[in-house]
Design goal:
The complex is a heterodimer of chains A (about 70) and B (about 575).
Chain A: E1 9-11, H1 24-28, E2 34-36, E3 42-44, H2 54-58, E4 64-66
Antiparallel strand pairs in A: 1-4, 2-3
Chain B: E1 8-18, H1 23-34, E2 40-43, E3 60-61, H2 72-82, H3 89-109, E4 134-135, H4 142-153, E5 156-158, E6 161-168, E7 174-181, E8 187-197, H5 225-232, E9 237-238, E10 247-249, H6 258-261, E11 267-269, H7 284-295, E12 301-304, H8 310-320, H9 328-334, E13 344-348, E14 361-362, E15 375-377, H10 388-407, H11 417-432, H12 439-454, H13 460-476, H14 485-510, H15 530-533, E16 535-541, E17 547-553
Parallel strand pairs in B: 1-2, 1-8, 2-5, 8-15
Antiparallel strand pairs in B: 3-4, 6-7, 7-8, 9-14, 9-16, 10-13, 11-12, 12-13, 16-17
Helix pairs in contact in B: 1-4, 1-10, 2-3, 3-10, 5-14, 11-14, 12-13, 12-14, 13-14
Classes of the chains: A alpha+beta (about 70), B alpha+beta (about 575).
């Protein structure tokens, strides 16, 4: 899965527990833009964010920050 | 990747519900409640837990018809007038007469509605005539309450399935659907006795002014798939010329939201700080007055809250920044906008198709039945005018319950292997192609053309050119290249967007008059012509495979509208502001 240079969804690798099996943010994203990387952490793979927040709100460790996509800021 | 490597899975169910947003879950819940022995499968291209337009909840019910505040007859009359008379009153009555029971049921599930000191629902006035807005203080949790019922009843849920076509049997009745699993790339054949389509608005039709493909007001996953699937299955579509256009926060493209702020004292003003409309309710005429103000030199147009007390603004923020589109607050922060000191710039959105906010959708009767036997539609996808969230729930419930009766004693329709094979070939072509066009580029070009040629004011020559461009892009679809199942899902969505663009243009050209304010404002026919056009404009797939347009008469009203009331929604402008 590609990594985007300036993702509007950022994941704090120190807080992300995807390596332990958590897939909450990947599952709840309506546009399915979050993916598991080879490092066992989640990253934003597609520039299709609806800035809607389920990923941020449902993350059990508060690892996610959603920003407004650049074109809209 | 060779065709032989594509995995195919077959699933059988009694009732298939497509779309896990608002209408779909209620259809599944009510079907399962009515007959727990039936297999009910609810699927979504995302995840039912957070799917649809209310992924992050909703701030209020726009259309609560509650005894003591409104009557079903009063509501039916208001929506008839707000929609310039072109409604099937029986469908609106079916909603209105079940509205309060649905609110009370949601209440029993744990959904919180605002109540006054004696425990009565605290209904607010936002519409031009009656009072139907009921705030939801903890509206952010509504999906969780609904999902709890889905689990409780044992509805089967399948996520990440993008349905691409409906299956029909040789006798014309519905037989299931075909889908792409957008993570594994698996092809899924779903056989069913009845299908309830709840795929939402066509929200990814016009291109937002920001140029960002996913910067839409509607959930961008709602790309118009349901309109396209219903059309190809032979269903009749209605009012596709009655566009959805909204006044939204400029650039952010989310609601401002005058609905919420109105009862607190907020309102829309022009650049001079003057109020120019009497009602912020989203009718076509309101949108026309908004557009006129933008074009008059009195623009931009703003939402005004800076005159309110600090504690009132805090209350508004506590609603607007936690439900529906909660990143509103983040957007304002980035632009250094504080409601206490600043006006919020608003703008007219790009076009979409939506029953919930206008009236463009798959034709259904008061039982949520489409014109294809066994196929139902509910929510923003169906043509029940000004349906909104509660209408989606009620019509979902109606569809689910009626589908239970429909499937009683029915065997699964035969599977047409030729339909399956043809669709499999269409679906996987972009993945199998060695090289080709990037889906995002094709989508950008298509939606830019939608803006250029379909955005009102509608002009005959422009729409004709638009149709030529859409046909050219349809040819380009044969060169789409997808590298992953995810990109393949996006590529297939473009097919649906092209269908919606073409059908919207054809319906707009067919109705040779102006109606619904800005929604169908034709410069070539700048007047309402009830003598010839007091009817629905319908479209379905003709015998030659091309769209066939025709008129459907409006049934006699069951709630009469007086001559003195008919034009109430045309009298929204505060005249002094226009000078």
């Amino acid at each position: 899965m590609p990594h985007l240079a300036q993702p509007s969804v950022t994941i704090d690798p120190d807080k992300c527990i995807a390596a332990k099996g958590c897939r909450t943010c990947i599952d709840v994203c309506p546009t399915d833009i979050l993916a598991l990387g080879p490092d066992g952490k989640v990253h934003m793979a597609y520039d299709e964010c609806w800035y809607c927040l389920p990923c941020q709100h449902d993350c059990p460790t508060k690892a996610i920050t959603v920003s407004i996509p650049y074109l809209l800021r | 990747m060779p065709q032989t490597e594509i995995k195919t899975r077959q699933v059988e169910t009694d009732i298939l519900v497509i779309g896990g947003g608002t209408a779909g879950p209620l259809a599944a819940i009510k079907a399962k409640e009515k007959n727990p022995a039936l297999k009910v499968l609810l699927l979504d291209k995302a995840n039912v837990k957070r799917a649809g337009a209310i992924a992050e909840g909703m701030d209020s019910v726009n259309n609560a018809v509650i005894k003591g505040h409104a009557t079903p007859q009063q509501y039916v009359k208001e929506i008839t007038i707000a929609n310039d008379g072109i409604v099937n009153q029986k469908t609106i009555m079916a909603y209105a007469s079940r509205s309060e029971a649905m609110i009370r049921e949601l209440d029993s599930w744990g959904v919180k509605f605002e109540k006054d000191e004696i425990g009565d629902y605290a209904v607010k006035k936002v519409h031009h005539m009656g009072s139907y807005v009921l705030p939801m203080p903890e509206g952010y949790a509504i999906k969780k309450h609904i999902f709890k019922q889905i689990k409780k009843l044992g509805v089967e849920v399948s996520n990440r399935l993008t349905t691409t076509r409906l299956l029909t049997a040789s006798d014309g009745r519905i037989a299931g659907a075909l889908a792409l699993e957008s993570r594994s790339g698996e092809f899924v054949v779903i056989r069913a006795k009845a299908v309830v389509l709840c795929t939402g608005a066509a929200g990814r039709l016009g291109l937002p002014a920001s140029g960002y493909l996913f910067g839409t007001y509607e959930n961008p996953c709602n790309a118009g798939d349901g309109y396209s699937m219903a059309y190809h299955a032979g269903a009749e579509l209605s009012g596709l010329e009655c566009f959805q256009i909204n006044p939204l926060i400029k650039d952010y493209n989310g609601p401002a939201c005058a609905y919420v702020t109105g009862p607190f004292g907020g309102f829309t003003v022009n650049a001079k700080g003057e109020r120019f409309i009497k009602s912020d309710y989203w009718s076509g005429q309101m949108m026309l007055e908004f557009w006129r103000e933008l074009e008059s030199g009195n623009g931009p147009v703003f939402l005004k809250l800076d005159h309110l007390a600090d504690e009132t603004v805090t209350k508004i923020e506590n609603v607007l920044h936690i439900t529906e589109r909660p990143t509103r607050g983040l957007f304002h922060q980035g632009r250094h906008t504080d409601y206490r000191h600043d006006l919020v710039e608003m703008h007219i959105s790009e076009i979409g198709l939506c029953g919930g906010h206008s009236a463009s959708g798959v034709w259904v009767d008061e039982n949520a039945r489409t014109t294809v036997p066994g196929l139902y539609a509910a929510g923003d996808l169906c043509n029940v005018a000004h349906n909104y969230m509660l209408g989606a729930m009620v019509f979902g419930a109606i569809a689910g319950q009626d589908a239970v009766d429909y499937v009683a004693g029915l065997e699964l329709p035969d599977l047409d292997e030729a339909q399956v094979a043809a669709e499999r070939e269409r679906v996987f072509a972009p993945l199998l192609r060695e090289e080709g066009l990037e889906p995002a580029q094709v989508e950008y070009k298509l939606r830019r053309m939608v803006n250029d040629y379909l955005q009102p004011p509608k002009v005959t020559r422009k729409m004709e050119i638009g149709l030529v461009r859409f046909a050219e892009i349809r040819e380009d679809l044969k060169r789409l290249k997808a590298n992953t199942p995810h990109e393949l899902m996006r590529a297939l969505e473009i097919y649906a967007i092209v269908d919606c663009a073409e059908l919207a243009a054809l319906a707009s050209l067919y109705r040779a008059e102006s109606r619904w304010g800005l929604y169908h404002y034709r410069t070539d026919f700048d007047f309402r012509n009830d003598a010839e056009w007091f009817c629905f404009v319908e479209v379905k797939k003709g015998a030659d495979g091309r769209p066939e347009l025709f008129k459907r008469p409006v049934d006699p009203y069951i709630v009469p509208v007086g001559d003195d009331e008919r034009n109430a929604y045309n009298e929204l402008r505060i005249d002094t502001a226009a000078e």
